[in-house]
Amino acid sequence: MRTITFFNNKGGVGKTTTVYHVAWMMSELGIKTIAIDLDPQSNLTSMFLTDEKLEDVYENNSPATILDAITPIVNGDTAVPVHIEQINENLGLILGNLTLSTFEDVLSDAWLKCLDSQVYPFRITSIFKTIIDEAALRFNASVVLIDVGPNLGAINRAVSISSDYIIMPVASDLFSLQGIKNLGTTLNLWKKQWNQRKELKPQNLTVQIPENNARPAGYIVMQYSAKESRPVKSYLKWANRIPNIFREFVLGNGNDKVNSVDDDINCIALLKHFRSLAPMSMEAHKPIFLLKPADGAIGAHVYAVKRSYDEFENLSKRILEKCP
Questions:
Q1: In terms of residue numbers, what domain contains 127?
Q2: Please, what sign has the CA dihedral across residues 319, 303, 282, 173?
Q3: Which helix (H) or strand (E) is 2 found in, with range?
């Protein structure tokens, strides 16, 4: 089982949409996959579920979200298996919860108290690993895809040290470059800090703590507009700066220069913007590559749907190659 977290300090780049479509495509490829919504905004959950299902979960307080698995552990009780919403035979969803943001303070306090070699702080800091490992075993998942919020808070720190791979969805603009710098620097700091805490693990701890082996698998450049199958000049201005920023701040290798994003082995994909298909996808609660004429995909949209299937299939296979 491999755990892949999609993470960017910069919001609005299509991160959640990418997790959603990759999760669906993994299931199309016959790969048992769990998608986990750990962004307190819970946008991934709303993409998967109908309004009626969302109302049932959140209005009627049905015990079905990630928070219902976290709360017993925080209270010192026995861990409760998290609910996995079965989307199809190969795809399960662990639902997000807006109240998850209140867990930030608990995780921040636990992070500090791990330095005192106390059992409870290590149990809390390891909470996502505990929940993910149990869920993956129960669902027999080969891949776990995690969506996190665009911040550098305690939740994302605990998730990142519990991951096997980090993928960065990025846009081609100034702020995305800054986001890569911030995230790369912070990930390396978190790794160093958790390695220090691992040395202080209490002997009587009964849970498995994160190994902290997360590797940056690369980046996905999101939503560019194509002209004659090539990105436009304004896009390239920023896109071609991404490879060296990624190398320097994420990989710690500032000497190996690359002139073009097209030539960068760390670029997993250049993902096109499937403009008019996006609202259809949201309305139908299905990925754009599975849209049918009944969903509004008629005329020129039919070709766009087919093209999107090929793109997401190639993207998903590339992710599997980068995250063995």
A1: 2-275
A2: positive
A3: strand 2-6
Q: φ and ψ at 142, to 5 degrees? A: -90, -25
Beta-strand pair 91-94/85-88: antiparallel
C-alpha Rg value of the chain to the nearest Å: 20
| Longest CA pairwise span in the chain (Å) | 65
pLDDT digits (tens, 9 = 90+) for 73-117: 999 888 889 999 999 999 999 999 999 999 999 999 999 999 999
CA 14 vs CA 77, 169, 274: distances in Å? 37, 7, 12
Q: Give the angle subtended at the CA of 219 by the CAs of 8 and 149, to the nearest 5°.
A: 20
Whether 282 is in a domain gets the answer: no
Tokens 């993994």 sit on residue? 26
* The model scores a pTM over 0.85: yes
**Is residue 153 included in any domain, yes or no?**
yes
3 DSSP β-pair partners: 144
Return the residue matching tokens 């959640």.
16
259 in a structural domain: yes
Residue 132 resides in a domain: yes
CATH of the domain at 82: 3.40.50.300
- What are 132-145's pLDDT values in tens digits? 999 999 999 999 99
For the chain, the domain total comes to: 1
